[in-house]
Specification:
Layout: H1 16-32, E1 54-55, H2 67-72, H3 85-93, E2 100-105, E3 111-114, H4 115-121, E4 126-134, E5 137-147, H5 148-155, E6 163-168, E7 188-192, H6 193-196, E8 202-207, E9 210-211, E10 221-223, E11 236-242, H7 249-253, E12 277-280, E13 291-292, H8 300-303
Parallel strand pairs: 1-4, 2-11, 5-12
Antiparallel strand pairs: 2-3, 4-5, 5-8, 6-7, 6-11, 8-9, 8-10, 12-13
The structure holds the ligand Nc1nc2c(c(=O)[nH]1)N[C@H]1C(S)=C(S)[C@@H](COP(=O)(O)O)O[C@H]1N2 and molybdenum atom.
């Protein structure tokens, strides 16, 4: 049964039993993969379960954006199109247990994963990836997860698998904005196989040393840091391996504005705005300048070879 909580109930008022159960669940999973050693960061949200890990060498040295900004200025259209709709609404209605991620299509070992299976799938300890993310605004977020490549290996794609199609939860009982037609639901996204297998493409379960807040795509989402934010699909329920290039939700809603690749590219403008600069969350004071946006969001050294020979103005 879905227990609704009043809008203005502070986290400290949520029934201790519920917190206890939630925490126990995750701690068991986390302990099972040996991640509890070496924690140290202070809790951002006292009710959230810890999900620590060692830093990946792919992490940037840039200062993380304050937790509060990253969790309160959010896009998750299933809960509304205002930045503060998801943080207000998702924690009240989005149910995280039980959760199933179906992985199927062109694979030899299709599988239904529950969250604990997913957490245990990759044995690596380096799970913290401090990465830049960019949209019209930008942020630096210490994500907790592991490369999607680990899951891809586990299901053994066939020779016909050329793309992955990601589908996210669409349940009108949990997501108030599904009654609007701002996008076609469920929200879908796509990656080419080599993009999906890149070590910077993450299956993500947490941030700032804790499980993902509901509004940031709990319990499991993608992070693809060299692409615009919308490629990083939240609250994943299905990954299908396919032969043909999938059409994602944004392409479907505005084909002249959004392409398949959506690589961060300051030289290609969105038809309605320039993409040459970005505003870093937390730097919006009177004197703060917009930053120049970097090709591939600064990850060119790692990812540019994926697009060798492609005209990125045509394949935007
Ligand atoms: N399911 C789903 N995933 C989604 C979205 C969405 O509306 N629904 N919005 C996307 C967009 S437009 C952005 S910018 C990022 C924002 O993620 P963040 O707020 O956690 O940084 O999530 C992406 N993933
Ligand atoms: Mo976005």
């Amino acid at each position: 049964m879905l227990i609704r909580q009043p809008a203005d109930l502070p986290p400290s008022e949520i029934t201790p039993e519920r917190i206890w159960r939630q925490r126990r669940h995750w701690v068991q999973a986390v302990a099972a993969v040996g991640l509890l050693a070496g924690t140290g960061a202070r809790a951002q949200n006292p009710t959230a379960a810890r999900l620590p890990g060692r830093p990946s060498p792919l992490s940037t040295m840039e200062k993380p954006t304050p937790y509060k900004l990253v969790t309160e200025y959010v896009n998750f259209y299933e809960f509304g199109t205002e930045k503060d709709d998801p943080p207000r609404l998702a924690p009240r209605t989005l149910r995280l247990r039980p959760w199933t991620l179906v992985v199927d299509g062109e694979v030899r070992k299709p599988r239904r994963f529950d969250l604990e299976d997913l957490l245990k799938l990759a044995a690596m300890e380096e799970r913290v990836y401090r990465l830049r993310c960019v949209e019209a605004w930008s942020a630096v977020v210490p994500w907790v997860g592991y490369p999607l490549a680990e899951l891809i290996k586990a299901v053994e794609p066939t020779g016909n698998a050329r793309y992955l199609e990601f589908t996210t939860l669409a349940d009108p009982q949990q997501m108030p904005n599904l009654r609007s037609s701002v996008l076609k639901w469920p929200y879908t996204e796509g990656l080419r196989m080599d993009e999906a297998q890149h070590p910077l493409t993450l299956l993500t379960f947490g941030m700032y040393g804790e499980v993902l807040p509901h509004q940031n795509g709990a319990p499991v989402r993608l992070v693809v840091p060299w692409k615009y934010g919308f490629k990083s699909a939240k609250s994943l329920v299905r990954i299908r391996f396919v032969e043909k290039q999938p059409v994602n939700s944004w392409q479907q809603s505005a084909p002249n504005e959004y392409g398949f690749f959506s690589n961060v590219n300051p030289t290609v403008d969105h038809p309605r705005w320039s993409q040459a600069t970005e505003r870093r969350l937390g730097e919006d004071g009177l004197l703060a300048r917009r930053r120049p946006t970097l090709m591939f969001n600064g990850y060119g050294e790692q990812v540019a070879s994926l697009y060798a020979g492609m005209d990125l103005r045509k394949f935007y």
